[in-house]
Every structure is written in structure tokens, then in C-alpha cells.
Amino acid sequence: MAPAAAFLSACAAGSLPRAPSLIPGRLLLPVPLSPARWDRSRGCSLVSVGASTRRAPTLRRNASAETAVPYVPGSGKYIAPDYLVRKVSAEEVQELVRGHRKVPLIVDFYATWCGPCVQMAQDIEMLAVEYEDNALFVKVDTDDEYEFAKDMQVRGLPTLYFFSPDQNKDAIRTEGLIPMDMMRNIIDNEL
């Protein structure tokens, strides 16, 4: 026990000699930074090179001047104020469903920690651009609106509800990651 304690205290003090390197002639060369790392206009950047590797908040490239909100890429929060599909509360969804609409309503139940939800969010954003005035897309965060999601029988994520402008038609419900063509087919042919 005494030799182990002596060895540990010598290691802590730094008095033990270092073993020779197993790879002779090994050189440490500085690695040049890629253009994405030194050009701040291309996305996220590091705070400093060295001890800290945390990302610095940057402004999203498509954000308008009046909605300049700090956005940290990779933070898990993919909902930003400049997205076309806006996040709504349970009360707002109920008002939209009960209200008079001339276009279909698509409600996306998602969570920020859900990988397929992030993938589908990109497809939904593209569909929102494609169906700009012909459909209304909204999102509901199931972590924020847990009781509403439970009442809507959301068991798997992502879950989409397609509401027709005709109040007599039933809503169409999909669960899981579905292709964009299937969403287009439901909007064009089923609603």
C-alpha cells in the first residue's frame, strides 16, 4: 500500500520522469481552419479557439432586422420566430379548428428532442412555402401543451392532423415520419 501511495503522490507532484515517446519524430503541426470557421457570415462560429468550445450565439441569416433574435445552432430549439410555420398554443389551435377557414389546417405535434420531428419540420417548412396561400400550417410543442396533446391522442411523434375547411369532414391523422409526397396527396386530394 505504501508504494502505491508514494507513486500517486509523486505523480501529483510531477516528479516522475516521463516515458519516451513511442513514435519517434512525431511532429505536431497546426491545422489550418476551414473557411467556414474564420468567415463569420457562413453560420455558427466558435467563441474562442482553445479551452472553450461553446458556440457563440449568431443571428440567423434569414432573420429580418426587426426580429433579430439570438439563435444558437445545435441547441435543440429549431423553432425560431422567422420560420413560416408558427408555434401556437392549445387555445389558438381550438380557435383555428372551430373558426371559419377557406384553406386546410395542418397541425404538427412535435417535441424539440425528437429527431424525426426535426426532419419533418424541414419538409413542413417547404410545404408551407409551396402552399403559401392554399393551406395553413401550425405547430404545437407537446412538452409545453402536454394535456392538449394527451386529449388529441398524440402517442407518437411527430403526429400531424389535417383539418379540412369543410366542418363536416373528419380530420385525418398521421403518426410518425411520413414523406412529403404523402402530405401533398392528403392536402390536394383528401381535404
UniProtKB/TrEMBL annotation:
<dbReference type="Pfam" id="PF00085">
    <property type="entry name" value="Thioredoxin"/>
</dbReference>
<dbReference type="GO" id="GO:0009657">
    <property type="term" value="P:plastid organization"/>
</dbReference>
<keyword id="KW-0813">Transport</keyword>
<keyword id="KW-0676">Redox-active center</keyword>
<keyword id="KW-0934">Plastid</keyword>
<keyword id="KW-0150">Chloroplast</keyword>
<feature type="domain" description="Thioredoxin">
    <location>
        <begin position="57"/>
        <end position="191"/>
    </location>
</feature>
<dbReference type="GO" id="GO:0009579">
    <property type="term" value="C:thylakoid"/>
</dbReference>
<dbReference type="GO" id="GO:0045454">
    <property type="term" value="P:cell redox homeostasis"/>
</dbReference>
<dbReference type="InterPro" id="IPR013766">
    <property type="entry name" value="Thioredoxin_domain"/>
</dbReference>
<dbReference type="GO" id="GO:0009507">
    <property type="term" value="C:chloroplast"/>
</dbReference>
<keyword id="KW-0249">Electron transport</keyword>
<dbReference type="InterPro" id="IPR036249">
    <property type="entry name" value="Thioredoxin-like_sf"/>
</dbReference>
<dbReference type="InterPro" id="IPR044182">
    <property type="entry name" value="CITRX"/>
</dbReference>
<keyword id="KW-0809">Transit peptide</keyword>
<keyword id="KW-1015">Disulfide bond</keyword>
<protein>
    <recommendedName>
        <fullName>Thioredoxin-like protein CITRX, chloroplastic</fullName>
    </recommendedName>
</protein>
<comment type="similarity">
    <text>Belongs to the thioredoxin family. Plant CITRX-type subfamily.</text>
</comment>
<keyword id="KW-0560">Oxidoreductase</keyword>
<dbReference type="GO" id="GO:0015035">
    <property type="term" value="F:protein-disulfide reductase activity"/>
</dbReference>
<dbReference type="InterPro" id="IPR017937">
    <property type="entry name" value="Thioredoxin_CS"/>
</dbReference>
